[in-house]
Each structure stands twice: as C-alpha cells, then as structure tokens.
Amino acid sequence: MKTLELKFVNNDGKIVTYSIEKPIEPVNPAAINAVMDEIITQNAFTSSGGDLVSKKSAHLVEHNVEEIEL
C-alpha cells in the first residue's frame, strides 16, 4: 500500500506528519505544494506543539508486507 506523507514544522519546531492512504498517482508536486500551503494558511490542523508554521517535506511511501508461514 502507498501513502503520501506530508511533513510540517509546528510552533515548537517539531515535525508533524500527516499520512494520506492510497493517493492519486502519479502525484502532482505542484498540487501537493499548493495544498500544503493552503493547510498552513487556513490553519486547518494543529498539533500538541501548536499550529503548523512551515512545510518540511512530502514523501510517497510504499509499504510491502510479506506473509511468513509459521
């Protein structure tokens, strides 16, 4: 399964990560950048360390699970 991880910096200077499962692919970097800007502008989310104040990064992560017979 793939997830899109959006990483922000909060008021305390700590990294806050929001994960979106099954993102639309191929991902659009310009759209992701715009959405992250809008999340900060609208103060859409907060964290235990305060409001989100800047973007840190975005990652497309793929998790592979392999069943192990016991």
UniProtKB/TrEMBL annotation:
Cross-referenced Pfam families: DUF2922 (PF11148)
Listed InterPro entries: DUF2922
Domain of life: Bacteria
Record-given protein name: DUF2922 domain-containing protein
Organism of derivation: Oceanobacillus zhaokaii
